[in-house]
Amino acid sequence: MRAVDLELFKPELVFFDFEAANSDELFEKLANELAPYGYIKDSWLAGIKKREETYPTGLAFETVSVALPHVDPEHLNKPYIAVIKPKEPIAFRGMAGIDGDVPAQIIVNLGLTAHEEGQVAVLQALMGVFLDTDAVSRIMAQTTPEGMVETMRELCS
């Protein structure tokens, strides 16, 4: 069994040129995108902000800076993986051991209803993708939701 349910990548969950001054604003805008599709509960926004404050998710890889924010399952109606390529990098606090902010060029928001082990496996798979220079180039070159979904599914399979 693969670590990532590839069906969680969907065109409706890919956002380009997202504009946000900070991670809180990104989450507020993302909530407005996810709610109409029934992915999230009313508690999602407060839940993801609190989790990001407690467990920051910014990571600086050799070729790209990313954020992998996720939320606890009780804030979800159904699982999803959203991919956000902001217009300008958005500052996220660095993950454990990283001082300061990371200017995230791509954000992968995990809304997983699986247990903690499943979430860790997905995070590990994504980290492997972002360590691969060629994979990062392919992701950053995407300009359509369908292309991003196809690329992410292929890279995470």
UniProtKB/TrEMBL annotation:
Transmembrane feature ranges: none
InterPro entries in alphabetical order: PTrfase/Anion_transptr (IPR016152), PTS_EIIA_type-2_dom (IPR002178), PTS_SugarTrans_NitroReg (IPR051541)
CDD domains: PTS_IIA_fru
SUPFAM superfamilies cross-referenced by the UniProt entry: Phoshotransferase/anion transport protein
One Pfam family cited in the UniProt record for this chain: PTS_EIIA_2
Domain PTS EIIA type-2: 7-155
PANTHER family in alphabetical order: PHOSPHOTRANSFERASE SYSTEM MANNITOL_FRUCTOSE-SPECIFIC IIA DOMAIN CONTAINING PROTEIN, PTS SYSTEM FRUCTOSE-LIKE EIIA COMPONENT-RELATED
Protein's name in the database: PTS galactitol transporter subunit IIB
